[in-house]
Design a protein that fits this description.
Elements (H helix, E strand, L loop, with lengths): L11 H6 L9 H8 L10 H20 L10 H6 L1 H34 L8 H15 L2 H24 L7 E2 L6 E2 L1 H36 L27 H21 L4 H24 L2 H31 L8 H4 L9 H8 L12 H16 L4 H12 L2
Antiparallel strand pairs: 1-2
Length: about 400
C-alpha cells in the first residue's frame, strides 16, 4: 500500500475556503480508490456499505447455511442473534454510509467561515497551517495502523471470549472443556470484528482530528459581532455540526446497545437501570461533540465582555449629552469642556440588550435532538425486548425532552 504524501500547506485562498474533506485521504481510502471502490469525486457509500456488510455479516450467514437441513440448524441462531445484526449489519452499514453525510455536513459548516467571512485576513496564514496539520493527521498511516491493530486485538479478545463463555450455537460448539469455533465463528473473529472495530476507531480518530482543527480555529482572530441575530456572535451555525454524525452515532450506539442487550438477556433489568444506562451514554455522546465547540466559549466571552464595556462607556457619553440637551446641564459632575463636545445621538439600548443576551455556549440541546435520538434509539430497541414498550418509550421521551 502506497503511503499518501504529506499534505502541502494550503494557499491563502484555500485557507479562506477551509476545504477539509474528512472522509478522504489515508491508506484505507487510497486502497479503496485503487480497487475502484470509490473515486476522488464520489465516495460511492451505498455500494461500499453493501459490500462491507456482505463481507462482515453476509459471509458468516453463508457459512451457517450448510446446517439448514441438519438436526441443529444454526443459521436461525445467527440471524436472530442481536450481536451480529447490530454490529456487522446495522453498524458497519451506518459507518460507511455516514462518510458522505459527515463530509458534506462539515464542509458546509467550514464554508460559512468564508461566506461571512469570519477569519480576519491577517489570520489566514495561521488558518493555512491549522488546515495543513489537520490534513496530515487525517492522512496519517500510523493512526490507521493503530486502528487496525486494535481491531485485530478485538478479534483476539473475542476468540478468548467465545472459547470461555459462548452461548451462541452458531459461533462455537462443544462443551465447556472442549469448546471450538465454527467456520462462522472463525470468520467473525478474523474478519467481521476487526472490520467493525477498525471502522469505529477510524471514525472516532477523524472526529478527533476535526476537534483539534476546530479548536485551533477558535484561537484565531475571528470577525465576530455581539449583536448578531443568531445570538452567538455569528457562530451559531457551528452548534449543530454534530447532526452530520447522526449515522455514525447510530452505528456506534448499535454496537454498544448490542453489549447491553447481551447483558439484559442474562439478567433482569429495571426501567431505572435502563434510564441510567441511556442517560450515561447520552452524556458521553454530547460530551464527545461538545469538546471542540467549547473552544469557542472563550472568544465569545471576551467579545461579550468587551462589547458590554464599550457600549456602556459610549452610552454614558451619549446619555449625558442627551441630559444636557434636555435640561441645559448635567445634574452630576457638570463639565464645561464636556458640554462643548459634539455627540451624535444614537440609541444603544437595543445593542446593549442584544449583547447582554449573547450566549457563549454553542452547544444547544434542541439543535442536537437528531444526534441524541440516534444515540438512544438502539438502546430503546434493546430495552423493549425485556421491558414493556410503554416504559421504554417513556424513558426515551424523557431523555430526549430533558
Amino acid at each position: 500500500m502506497q503511503v499518501p504524501p504529506a499534505a502541502s500547506p494550503p494557499s491563502e485562498k484555500e485557507a479562506g475556503r477551509l476545504d477539509f474533506l474528512i472522509a478522504h485521504g489515508g491508506p484505507f481510502y487510497e486502497l479503496q480508490r485503487r480497487l475502484g471502490l470509490l473515486h476522488d469525486k464520489t465516495l460511492k457509500t451505498g455500494r461500499r456499505a453493501l459490500l462491507f456488510v456482505a463481507i462482515a455479516w453476509g459471509m458468516p450467514l453463508v457459512l451457517t447455511l450448510p446446517t439448514l437441513f441438519s438436526d441443529r440448524p444454526t443459521v436461525w441462531n445467527y440471524i436472530s442473534d442481536p450481536g451480529p445484526v447490530t454490529r456487522f449489519l446495522l453498524a458497519i452499514f451506518a459507518f460507511i454510509a455516514a462518510e458522505q453525510a459527515t463530509e458534506t455536513g462539515l464542509l458546509r459548516k467550514l464554508r460559512q467561515f468564508t461566506l461571512a467571512p469570519l477569519i480576519a485576513p491577517k489570520a489566514f496564514a495561521d488558518a493555512a497551517r491549522a488546515l495543513a496539520d489537520a490534513l496530515r493527521l487525517r492522512d496519517s498511516p500510523i493512526a490507521e495502523l493503530v486502528c487496525l491493530t486494535l481491531g485485530l486485538l478485538a478479534g483476539v479478545f473475542a476468540f478468548v471470549s467465545f472459547r470461555e463463555n459462548s452461548i451462541s450455537l452458531w459461533s462455537a460448539i462443544g462443551g465447556p472443556d472442549d469448546r471450538r469455533l465454527t467456520a462462522a465463528g472463525w470468520w467473525c473473529v478474523c474478519i467481521s470484528i476487526p472490520i467493525f472495530t477498525f471502522l469505529l476507531l477510524r471514525g472516532i480518530w477523524r472526529h478527533i482530528v476535526w476537534a483539534i482543527f476546530l479548536r485551533r480555529l477558535a484561537r484565531l482572530e475571528l470577525r465576530l459581532v455581539s449583536t448578531h441575530p443568531d445570538g452567538k456572535g455569528g457562530l451559531a451555525f457551528l452548534g449543530d455540526y454534530p447532526n452530520a454524525y447522526v449515522l455514525f452515532v447510530f452505528g456506534v450506539s448499535c454496537g454498544v446497545a448490542a453489549a447491553v442487550a447481551k447483558h439484559m438477556a442474562q439478567t433482569d433489568i429495571s426501567a431505572a437501570t435502563l434510564t441510567t444506562i441511556m442517560a450515561a451514554w447520552l452524556i458521553i455522546v454530547i460530551a464527545f461533540f461538545a469538546y471542540p465547540l467549547s473552544a469557542f466559549s472563550r472568544p465569545l466571552a471576551i467579545l461579550k465582555e468587551k462589547s458590554l464595556r464599550t457600549l456602556s462607556a459610549r452610552a454614558t457619553i451619549q446619555q449625558r449629552a442627551a441630559e444636557r440637551k434636555a435640561i441645559g446641564e448635567n445634574v452630576v459632575s457638570s463639565d464645561p469642556v464636556e458640554a462643548e463636545q459634539a455627540v451624535e445621538p444614537v440609541d444603544l439600548g437595543k445593542q446593549y440588550d442584544q449583547t447582554r443576551k449573547l450566549s457563549t455556549m454553542l452547544v444547544n440541546r434542541n439543535a442536537l435532538l437528531p444526534v441524541a435520538a440516534a444515540a438512544l434509539i438502539p438502546f430503546a430497541v434493546a430495552g423493549a425486548s425485556r421491558l414493556p414498550y410503554k416504559e421504554v418509550f417513556s424513558v426515551l421521551k424523557k431523555l430526549l425532552l430533558l
